[in-house]
Structure formats: C-alpha cells, structure tokens
Amino acid sequence: MNASxxxxxxxxxxxxxxxxxxxxGKASEISTVQRIIKHRQIHTICEEGRCPNRxxxxxxxxxxxxxxxxxxxxxxxxxxxxxxxxxxxxxxxxPQKVAQAVHLLGLRYVVLTSVAxxxxxxxxxxxxxxxxxxxxxxxxxxxxxVLTPDFWGGMGVGxxxxxxxxxxxxxxxxxxxxxxxxxxxxxxxPVRRGAKYDRSLQVLATVKEIDVTIPTKSGLMxxxxxTLEEVIETMKDLRNVKCDRLTVGQYMRPSLAHLPVQKYxxxxxFTQIGKIAQDMGFSHVRSAPLVRSSYHAGVN
Length: 300
What we know:
Elements: H1 3-15, H2 27-39, E1 43-44, H3 45-48, H4 54-59, E2 62-67, E3 71-72, E4 82-83, H5 94-105, E5 109-114, H6 125-138, E6 143-147, H7 162-171, E7 176-178, H8 188-191, H9 197-210, E8 216-222, H10 228-240, E9 245-250, H11 267-280, E10 284-287
Parallel strand pairs: 2-5, 3-4, 5-6, 6-7, 7-8, 8-9, 9-10
Antiparallel strand pairs: 1-2
C-alpha cells in the first residue's frame, strides 16, 4: 500500500460519523473464540468479516460460523470475505469441528452461514445439514439459525436443483432461515455481482412454501446510494414473500478495493426505517447503524 492509499484510508476513517465508532469488546472473550476456531481450522464470519459486534455477541454466547472455507466463488463488491481464486477443498470433518467449538464455547445460539460454492453439485447445502446434525448430537439445547447463499449455481455430476437444496436445509428444522437481499433492486447489479434481486426473494418464498412454520429473515445494508423510497419498496417486497424478520445496518467500506460509501445514514433515520418495518408487519426488526445479519439473532 502506497502513501496515497494510506492517506485515503486515514481520511475515510476520520470522516466516519461518531456513531459508527465503538469499542470492539473484551479482548479475553474475543481471544478465547479466536483460539478455539484457529486450533480447529474453522472460520466465523464474525472474524472473516471483522464484525464490529463480535465481542458483544461472544459475551451473549452467540457466534456465526462460516462453512465451506473462507474463499467465495462470487465477487460481491461490498464483502470482506476472500474471493478471486480457487475455493478451498471441502473439509469432511468441518461439521464435527464446528460442533466441538460450539460445545467448548457453551454457545446457546449458533448461526451457520457459508461462502457461495457454485463449484459444488449441491451448492454446499449438504454441509449445512451435516453441521446442524453434528451440533445437535453434541449440544442438543443449542438453537441453530441458517444464513444461506441463494444456492443457484452448481457444477459437476449430479447437480441438485435450487429447491431441493433449500428443502434439505428446511427439513433439518433451523429455528430461522435467513437469506439477505443486501440492497435495493436498482443497486443489486453493482453491489451483489452474480446475484439477482428476484432470485433472492424467490429463496425466501420457497422456504415458506416448503414449511410455513419456519421464520424467515433478510437483511439490508444502507449506504450504497439507495433512497428511502427504495428501502421502503424493498421491505414491501420482503413482506410480499412473507419474510418475518429484518435487519438493517450501515455499509462500511472494508478496503479501497471495495465500493465506497455513498451516504452514512443517521441513527434517527435507522429508527424511522425500523418503525416503518414494524408497521408493515415484520415480527422482529433490528435497525441501527452497526446492526449486522446475526446481531442479537438469539434474542426474540
């Protein structure tokens, strides 16, 4: 990184509003989790995505595990997760490793997510199911939420359809099925490369078709240039596919290689959006600058 790039990063950090600056949490709580996951060579999106809330979540006995390695086959312009080269080989022992970590940490609520694995015949859906089963064998009381990709891609012999992939996971009975639309319709192309807005809505609709009793959830990141009217329209689209829960947070640029922030929405604006979402009928809403997909996931 040259001097110009360092100065640009420093300038962006200085320009960041005060409400986005917060202590990371107790070092002891973070280091305990880091030590356990590093020893088992597994990943959490809390660490890979450098979530600002990870200390708080760890203290509440909640964590989000990143399955199928740390390299994504998509190239979303907002995401901190590694991409741009060959994904890692699937670790057959990963479900057991994650279950052991859940047990050692005494986690009460676990979110399982994954990188997109368009190179796999089942898109990685089987790994979700195996990990859920392994956790329940070792820690029966732990509740499990899933945060999945759209499961659209897939290569090789025996490719499984998107609906079959979703059905595998739904039948494993997560306590909540989360899939993020991330942004408004007009910005999906530049922000979510390889994803489609209507395809994401269809994921949530399909889950409800398979099992109407499982709560569905989605999330939005603000700051890419969307308008309030577009945010409201997106929330309406989510309610039209019977999405139950919503998270809304501020996009924060991970590096100069990612999309720049177009606007920092104020806490008051997030509160307004949260109130609109509640009035629309979402059963659970988290709307604040530092909210992320799994923030207070286990708090109903």
